[in-house]
Amino acid sequence: MSLRTEYPFMLPKGFLDEHGRLHRTGTMRLACARDEIEPLRDPRVKENDAYATVIVLARVVTELGEVSRVTTKTIESLFVSDFSYLQDLYRIINFQDPSILDALEPGTPFPPASVEVG
User: Fold this and answer.
1) Which domain of life, per UniProt (predicted)?
2) DSSP label at 104?
3) Which of the listed residues 66, 86, 111, 117 has the most CB atoms within 10 Å of its CB?
4) 61-64 sheet: strands from edge to edge
5) Mean of the per-residue pLDDT values of the chain
């Protein structure tokens, strides 16, 4: 049995870059402890705890269409539905059974029951 560490995704709406190009497909990798620890040192997180999510997603989203490098600015610029989608995907691949992703149509919202953490 092998460990899958990267998961392709399709954003519901897509990231619109500064040139007006739309990017919907991407890849997210499994997070490591450092991905969750490092943001706690960032001054933006000290001002607003919720910003940690932006930093974590910028670290684990390894590809987003033709965007050369996914940064916090990229994540900040996502439509809310796409940001929420990536948060749900993060929870599923890191804390739940990622096999549920195989049954879903790319780009569709995750069922609420599948993203409960607890």
Assistant:
1) Bacteria
2) S
3) 86
4) 6-16, 22-29, 61-64
5) 89
